[in-house]
């Protein structure tokens, strides 16, 4: 009897020990998991207008001020400036009003898709487009065409430099050759345009995009311009020959990753680059692919006859590691030349087989990722939240200021009164805000 009681006590003791160890393991695992989900605290600043959308129209200039081009479909694009010294943001120009399009019965300048660029004197350049943006009852052919603009921060004067081409929609990306004073832009139809800033003349250099969209271009130290087209291909504008042609080199991509739309994969851009920036220090370009896990790559155009591509890391949200249903890459990509860092805010939205869905409007909170070029390591900076704990539900444009501050434009949780949209899945009120991240720099 005593032996049986002793055995029972021993068994009960062992069970209690096992339960204690199990509980401790679960608790430690939970704490570890909670510790892994760190937050990246940012400051957010409202835009005075009610613009609901933006793409790549964000630029932190050499004078420390930040310029943003926001979009209102069927309405007008707006041009803003943020002064970090004063902590103030204001609207500079209503573009449709500035060029006299309001009340004309024509489709207006609704969009600034491109990231603005800067010349040696600190002047800022950008371009407009319509790209099918309404009003729906107004004939698309009434759209006069995209226009080049110059903004002088010293005088706060905006200058209309003229049409890019009659009925030509306007450029998605813009690049500048500061030495030769040329602007380059490529539009929805795939034509490459060069604007001579000295003589105020636009030249059509031909179709380089295979009648497809190129979302990012860059100009190297020799004045050559590069862009991408399907499938994972690169074109080059040769400054000496003044001619554009296709290269045979390909960027890294994974063909097994799901296309943008499974029900219509005919023209799929997940294999091309989404955003790319020239690094004047290393004299190479750093870019991120549209899909394939948002692959970060380095392209050295001077290494060999056509240059050399090097895959560096995957920048997609870590929850998509090892999966094939990775969402389309964002344009929230920025190179910090001075501190040798790359920042990226990947999409966190779930994949939808039947439809093409953008990052904006998604109800999944988003993270910020940093790639350290000095150590060649990806660093998780955490879940984006503002100082009041409000979540960020998607970012697109990104740029780094002279002091290393990262600026993003994204949809942030807000009050119902200030909302311009709601998240699709969770119906949370959101609005576009300038997002400011100040990193710890060594």
Summarize the structure.
The chain contains two helices and 29 strands. With 442 residues, the chain is mostly beta strands. It has a single domain, classed as 7 Propeller (Methylamine Dehydrogenase, Chain H), CATH 2.130.10.10.
Q: Examine the coordinates and then state which fold CATH places here, giving the name of the CATH topology.
A: Methylamine Dehydrogenase, Chain H
Question: CATH architecture, please?
Answer: 7 Propeller
Most strands sheet: 9 strands, mixed
Indicate the overall shape.
Answer: globular
The overall number of domains is 1
How much helix is in the residues? under 10%
* Total number of beta strands: 29
Provide the CATH superfamily.
YVTN repeat-like/Quinoprotein amine dehydrogenase
Mean pLDDT: 88
Report the span from N to C terminus.
71 Å
Uncertain residue segments: 1-35
SS-based structural class? mainly beta
Using the coordinates above, name the CATH class. Answer: Mainly Beta
Instruction: Please indicate the percent range of residues in DSSP E strands (runs of 2 or more).
Output: 35-45%
The number of helical runs is 2
């Amino acid at each position: 009897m005593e032996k049986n009681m002793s055995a029972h006590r021993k068994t009960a003791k062992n069970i209690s020990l096992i339960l204690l160890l199990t509980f401790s393991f679960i608790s430690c695992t939970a704490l570890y998991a909670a510790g892994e989900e760190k937050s990246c605290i940012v400051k957010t600043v409202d835009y005075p207008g009610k613009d609901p959308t933006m793409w790549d129209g964000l630029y932190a200039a050499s004078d420390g001020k930040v310029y943003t081009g926001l979009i209102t479909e069927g309405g007008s694009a707006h041009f803003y400036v943020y002064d970090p010294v004063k902590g103030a943001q204001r609207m500079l120009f209503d573009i449709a009003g500035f060029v006299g399009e309001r009340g004309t019965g024509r489709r207006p300048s609704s969009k600034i898709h491109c990231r603005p660029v800067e010349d040696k004197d600190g002047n800022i350049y950008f371009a407009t487009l319509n790209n099918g943006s309404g009003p729906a009852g107004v004939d698309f052919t009434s759209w006069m065409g995209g226009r080049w603009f110059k903004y002088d921060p010293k005088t706060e004067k905006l200058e209309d430099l003229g049409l890019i081409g009659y009925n030509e929609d306007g450029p998605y990306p813009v690049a500048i050759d500061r030495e030769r004073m040329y602007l380059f832009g490529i539009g929805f139809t795939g034509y490459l345009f060069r604007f001579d800033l000295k003589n105020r003349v636009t030249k059509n250099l031909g179709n380089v995009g295979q009648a497809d969209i190129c979302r990012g271009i860059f100009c190297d130290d020799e004045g050559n311009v590069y862009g991408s087209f399907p499938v994972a291909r690169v074109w080059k504008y040769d400054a000496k020959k003044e001619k554009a042609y296709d290269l045979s080199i390909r960027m890294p991509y994974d063909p097994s990753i799901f296309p943008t739309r499974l029900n219509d994969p005919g023209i799929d851009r997940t294999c091309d680059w989404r955003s790319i920036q020239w690094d004047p220090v290393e004299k190479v370009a750093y870019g991120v692919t549209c899909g394939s896990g948002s692959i970060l790559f380095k392209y050295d155009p001077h290494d060999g006859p056509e240059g050399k591509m090097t895959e560096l890391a995957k920048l997609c949200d870590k929850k998509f590691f090892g999966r094939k249903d990775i969402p389309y890459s964002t344009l929230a990509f920025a190179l910090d030349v001075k501190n040798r860092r790359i920042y990226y805010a990947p999409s966190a939205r779930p994949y939808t087989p039947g439809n093409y869905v953008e990052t904006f409007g998604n109800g999944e909170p988003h993270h910020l990722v940093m790639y350290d070029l000095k150590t060649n390591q990806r660093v998780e900076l955490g879940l984006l939240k503002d100082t009041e704990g409000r979540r960020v539900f998607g970012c697109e444009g990104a740029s780094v200021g002279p002091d290393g501050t990262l600026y993003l434009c994204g949809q942030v949780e807000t009050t119902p009164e200030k909302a311009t949209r709601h998240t699709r899945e969770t119906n949370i009120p959101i609005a576009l805000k300038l997002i400011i991240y100040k990193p710890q720099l060594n």
